[in-house]
Design goal:
The structure is a single chain. This protein is 40% helix and 25% strand. The protein is of the alpha+beta class and 207 residues long. The protein has 2 domains: 160 residues, no CATH class; 42 residues. A hairpin with a 4-residue loop joins β2 and β3. The radius of gyration is 18 Å and the shape is globular.
Length: 207
């Protein structure tokens, strides 16, 4: 059994077997939300507009899942188009990295979602949302803004790593230029360890 955080994260990245459990994922809810935000205003019977500030709610059998449509708060037309089409799929790590490098006040949170009997590595952005007056996750793949607790329940989200704007700036300054092309999934898991190790090596050569 892994004993250190690094060993745990390495197992998660290489073996894809972290947090394997029975399928608690609310598959029909997530599927409905995906298509609702993809082709808005497609009609989904279980989704209602909750308030004038743009909040929606999915009424499930056991609980309600309030959310906002991410693209409703985006002014950039190119990004808005990506969020509302299939262009948004399989880009969660890349989007999170680019957004966090360019903007302060956002954190990349990477972890596993239990989706259709699979554990998939997934990245979202964590930030303060003034409308709710609390921290939320911005999910590029699903085009949603949802409070952290609700999101973690719906997606069975198990966190592996968190990176700040400062972490990413430090990583880019110390390591990014060493690679012709870097693997986004690798970066969101191991940026801190790579930066720390490079600094240690640099100190050795500076002596």
């Amino acid at each position: 059994m892994p004993k250190t955080v690094l060993e745990l994260k390495t197992n998660a990245f290489l073996l894809n077997d972290l947090f394997k459990e029975s399928n608690h994922f609310k598959e029909s809810i997530v599927r409905d939300i995906f298509y609702f935000t993809l082709n808005k205003p497609i009609y989904i019977p279980s989704i209602y507009k909750l308030s004038s500030n743009g909040q929606y709610v999915y009424h499930g059998e056991k609980r309600a899942y309030p959310f906002y449509v991410f693209s409703d708060f985006v002014n950039d037309e190119k990004l808005k188009q990506q969020l509302q089409t299939m262009e948004r799929t399989k880009k969660c790590h890349d989007f999170a990295l680019q957004f966090t490098l360019g903007e302060e006040g956002y954190k990349i949170v990477t972890g596993y979602v239990n989706l259709f009997n699979k554990n998939l590595l997934h990245s979202v952005l964590k930030t303060y949302f003034p409308i709710l007056k609390k921290n939320v996750y911005l999910d590029f793949t699903y085009n949603i803004i949802m409070d952290c607790e609700t999101y973690e329940d719906l997606f069975s989200f198990k966190k592996v790593e968190t990176l700040t704007h400062e972490d990413m700036i430090e990583f880019e300054e110390n390591l990014y230029l060493l690679f012709d092309a870097y693997e986004e999934k690798f970066t969101v898991c191991f940026a801190k360890e790579l930066t720390r190790d490079l600094k240690r090596v640099k100190k050795t050569f500076d002596k």
